[in-house]
Amino acid sequence: MNLLHMSTNKKEAFTQEEQELAELAKALAHPARIAILKELARRNVCICGEIVEVLPLAQSTVSQHLKELQQAGLIKGSVDGVKSCYCINYEAFKRFEGILEKFFRITENSQGCC
Amino acid sequence: MNLLHMSTNKKEAFTQEEQELAELAKALAHPARIAILKELARRNVCICGEIVEVLPLAQSTVSQHLKELQQAGLIKGSVDGVKSCYCINYEAFKRFEGILEKFFRITENSQGCC
DNA sequence: TTTATTTATCGTTTTTTTACGATAAATTTT
DNA sequence: AAAATTTATCGTAAAAAAACGATAAATAAA
User: Fold this and answer.
1) What residues of chain B lie within 8 A of the CB of A31, using their CB?
2) pTM to 2 decimal places
3) How far is CA A86 from CA A9, A78, A80, B75, in A?
């Protein structure tokens, strides 16, 4: 492999699994998004702009993070009048957990040498 | 909170735990790094430039990814002559698993509303 | 000793992410 | 009906990540 680095489309060079795990990991790759997820889990009744109150970020920035979490599938959102309501997508987390577990299992039976 | 967005240093606004999880997740947030980790685990004898052979990326780019994984603590490296050898840091993965498990547990007992 | 191999690092470019303010649309409240 | 509230989106700026080629240092092979 690696003549002129194979394909022009880098994304396609990796497996579907690798891409999916990377996408999900990316959703967790910012402390603000982790804080949002924790807050959504804490109040099991869904919240909306209350998240903004809790985070040290501007409303538009929080909105952006919420969008990313939603696009990754980790949260669900619904509109209630002028307010909007988000919550944990339980099924997605279960799936995420499964993918991670499988991944970690691979690393488990490798005895390092360094 | 949130008057002028609190502190000027955004990083400090989140907990140590949130930051650590975000850092670890970021290390997984690229398919190339996942592929590298899988390859390191597959050959349980450590490899080095053989990783470059397997990935559709330039040598310098792979080297960069290896550095990031090492900085995140997920892999260990050692030099053997002109070659350099990397391997899975088993303890780090165990720790990572623990942190994730704790995090997922929080999300588990939240019944969504959307 | 000269040549070849291996790999980390430098410099650079391009792309993505993060963050904010301003604004617009929708909906309550007054 | 007018004013206020809520929130997504737009435009933009700054920072970080991703990628490459070139190079230098170290070691191995000739």
Assistant:
1) 11, 14-15, 18-19, 21-22
2) 0.92
3) 35, 6, 10, 36
